[in-house]
Design a protein that fits this description.
The protein is an alpha+beta fold. Helix content is 49%, strand content 13%.
Length: 319
């Protein structure tokens, strides 16, 4: 991994334990499988929503947003940071919700100190302070996938590249805000109370998704909510509590696997298989290689045929 910021997944388990690593208490993330406000209400209180989408690389900066209105005063009075470095937008989106909800959430002494330190900064300097925070960067990078083949050189994205971006939605001061570090200021989407947030945010998300082609499905939504184990204990639901504990255990296991480099293990396994085949004799080894080559060739041919067939179906649908 590089000394900068590495890419992390948009995953509820990653985000939950990332905040845990930063010292945040009693917060978790839940994936949204549908744009249903009732789903959010059932998991309330909801502090905000993080939206991952394919970013239009060739899009030029706009004086006014496509939806909503820029609120330049909120950029000064609320925690809003400009994104100044690649790969940090996921963690930045989390902090955009978290540090505007510190009256409801125990964000821990380190993040509280960071917010107070950057409180008088303009958005661009807040972004620089965030990108240079060793604590935040180190915790962020601890959830990056381990890969010996990672290219540490950051190349400018082109219109042909698939580039993804995170933005946050949350309620602040009786209004619904979109917090995007690539925009000059927070975007306000009308009035909204904390309790109304699930009902107000869903139409905004729907309008945003509708701006993409109908076949575009590469979106991801996670909600920042209070630790659901607290709610389960409050109502005495032991089954729910057990399910949440099991989910936490699964998240920890998955996060451990993300950090592990399996290349060495795979290499040793392949060596063991080859040694086993060679012990059966040169002729049997050559026969095994030939069979494997034929099988691989057949599978690749079948995949190409399936891909061509899928493309023809898509074209017919579009027509």
């Amino acid at each position: 991994m590089s000394a900068g910021w590495n890419t992390i997944e948009s995953d509820a388990g990653v985000f939950t334990y990332l905040l845990d690593g930063l010292g945040v208490k009693d917060v978790q993330f839940e994936e949204l499988m549908s744009l249903d406000p009732n789903f959010l209400h059932q998991r309330g209180p909801v502090y905000g929503v993080i939206f991952l989408f394919k970013y239009p690389v060739g899009e030029k900066p706009r004086e006014t947003p496509l939806d909503g209105v820029f609120d330049y005063d909120a950029a000064k009075s609320r925690f809003f940071a400009a994104q100044t470095i690649q790969n940090a937008c996921g963690t930045q989106a989390l902090l955009s919700v978290l540090l505007n909800k510190d009256e409801l959430i125990d964000v821990g002494p380190k993040l509280q100190e960071f917010k107070e330190f950057t409180g008088a900064f303009p958005a661009d300097l807040r972004g620089e302070a965030l990108s240079n925070s060793e604590l935040i960067r180190d915790v962020h990078n601890s959830f990056a996938k381990s890969s010996p083949f990672a290219d540490e050189a950051q190349q400018p994205a082109t219109e042909e590249d698939d580039v993804y971006h995170f933005v946050a939605y949350t309620e602040m001061g009786g209004k619904l805000y979109e917090l995007d570090g690539l925009q000059p200021a927070p975007i306000v989407h009308g009035s909204c109370s904390f309790e109304e947030f699930p009902d107000r945010v869903i139409p905004v998300l729907q309008r945003r998704i509708e701006r993409y082609p109908a076949q575009e499905i590469r979106f991801n939504l996670v909600a920042m909510v209070r630790d659901l184990r607290i709610r389960a204990r409050e109502i005495g639901d032991q089954d729910w509590l057990y399910q949440e504990e099991q989910k936490r255990n699964a998240w920890q296991w998955e996060n451990a696997l993300r950090r592990h480099n399996f290349v060495g293990f795979i290499g040793e396994t392949m060596k063991g298989v080859v040694r086993s085949k060679l012990s059966e004799g040169e002729a049997r080894y050559a026969e095994w290689v030939e069979e494997a080559t034929k099988t691989t060739s057949t599978r690749m041919t079948e995949r190409r045929k399936a891909k061509r067939g899928s493309s023809k179906e898509d074209m017919a649908t579009e027509q």
